[in-house]
Specification:
There is one protein chain. This protein has 398 residues and is α+β, with helices and mostly antiparallel strands. Helix content is 33%, strand content 22%. It is built from 10 helices and 23 strands. The strands form 7 sheets. Strands 13-17-14-21-18 form a 5-stranded mixed β-sheet, with no helix packed on it. The protein has a 4-stranded antiparallel β-sheet with strand order 2-9-6-7. The longest helix has 39 residues. The protein is globular, with a radius of gyration of 27 Å.
Length: 398
């Protein structure tokens, strides 16, 4: 059999709902939808703000609430335009360029958002998913180096390939709508767990000046003692290897330089080195000593420490206490005022911590360890769902 030439390959996706065999059709987005962007009422005019109309900005296109509200006067005396629940919202400017969503509220949009309304009965959800799938391509084509803005005319000229059959469109749209809802649900669960952890950190460690925490395991009544971190745990400050010794070879030593090498409180290997300067061992705590100061994680590997981090040999209780110190802004007063906010070994050794008896430390440590484990599980589930979605986007579109 002759190999099918790419140009005559049928326009059909790799993965498809049963019963559909037609080729998909390529059209300009502007030919199947109307679109318009909005504007912003004059800042500083009190009579334009604080009304009843939600004012949607590009970071809020997926939200069901807005930070700002405008008045009828603000709407009528500006280019702000009304959109309704179900309209497609597309971010044109700034950090959110190329993000898209279905509006969850009736409100007004500013100039950084393009509203898209299908005019030929095409399913809005399938259009949104196609735009999500194309996001990287659109950004790299029209925003080289992340500079500049997208425009309504660029979006109208995009060539979109969709099923001719509206039932197939609806099925694909609804499949992704459900998948997105599941992802949102898992994200909420994860956010809630992280909030709960914050609450426990505040209540299970003594507040400033207090000798006992608000919430405590039964059977413990002694006052906690104030100690210096350096008395309770051994510290190793990092020292960066020479940059010519950095490698991409996973057989070399893992280098931890700062935040970029940690994700969700764990070291994630990214750069390696052939030169050993300062070392941390598996299960040591890694503290960021340069902006942002005080971020804390653990390492599951023996690693080399760059100058942006320090290693602390501490138990789970110390790890959680350091997490609480970051949360309550303990390290911010060590800001040197320069752009490189940093702390030194004395700052860390002299850091004041409150310590209960060993048995209570262990109970607190293991309580938080279980909570962290639960958070990690939810994070993994969420990451997996997002990966699965990426795969479906590749296979279910042409």
């Amino acid at each position: 059999m002759a190999k099918i030439d790419d140009s005559v390959k049928k326009k059909v996706p790799e993965l498809r709902f049963k019963g559909f065999t037609d080729e998909w059709e390529e059209r300009k987005l502007g030919a199947i939808a109307d679109s318009f962007s909005g504007g912003t009422p004059t800042a500083g005019k009190a009579e334009y703000y604080g009304g009843e109309i939600p004012f949607i900005r590009s970071g809020e296109i997926s939200s069901d609430s807005t930070e700002l509200f405008i008045t009828d006067a603000g709407l009528n005396n500006s280019s702000a335009k009304m959109v309704g629940i179900g309209d497609i919202l597309y971010a044109l400017y700034g950090a959110t360029s190329g993000e898209t969503s279905i509006s969850r509220i009736n409100g007004a949009i500013n100039q950084a958002i393009l509203a898209i309304r299908p005019t030929k009965g095409d399913d809005p959800y399938i259009i949104v998913q196609w735009l999500k799938k194309q996001k990287e391509i659109i950004i790299s084509t029209y925003l080289q180096g992340g500079q500049g803005n997208l425009s309504g005319s660029i979006v109208k000229d995009l060539l979109i390939t969709l099923p001719k059959n509206k039932d197939e469109q609806a099925k694909v749209g609804s499949f992704f709508k459900q998948l997105d809802q599941t992802i949102t649900l898992h994200q909420r669960k994860l956010d809630l767990l992280k909030e709960q952890k914050k609450g426990y950190l505040q209540k299970m460690f003594p507040k400033n000046g207090a000798k006992v925490p608000e919430l405590r395991f039964a059977g413990f009544a002694d006052a906690w003692e104030q100690r210096k971190l350096g008395e309770e745990a051994q510290l190793t400050m990092g020292q960066s290897p020479n940059s010519e010794n950095y490698t991409k070879n996973p057989d070399d030593y893992i280098l931890v330089q700062g935040n970029a090498d940690m994700k969700n409180g764990r070291v994630v290997p990214r750069v390696w080195t052939t030169q050993i300067t300062k070392k941390a061992e598996k299960s040591d705590l890694i503290l960021s000593v340069r902006a942002p100061v005080g971020d804390i994680g653990k390492t599951d590997y023996d690693v080399v420490l760059g100058r942006g981090v320090a290693a602390i040999k501490g138990n789970e209780f110390i790890f959680q206490q350091l997490g609480k110190m970051k949360l309550t802004g303990y390290w911010t007063r060590y800001s040197t005022g320069s752009t490189f906010e940093s702390i030194n070994s004395n700052d860390i050794k002299d850091a004041k911590i409150m310590v209960p008896v060993e048995e209570e430390q262990q109970k607190i440590g293991s309580f938080f360890q279980q909570l962290d484990h639960l958070i990690t599980l939810h994070q993994r589930k969420l990451d997996l769902l997002k990966e699965q979605k990426k795969g479906f986007l590749q296979k279910m579109f042409v």
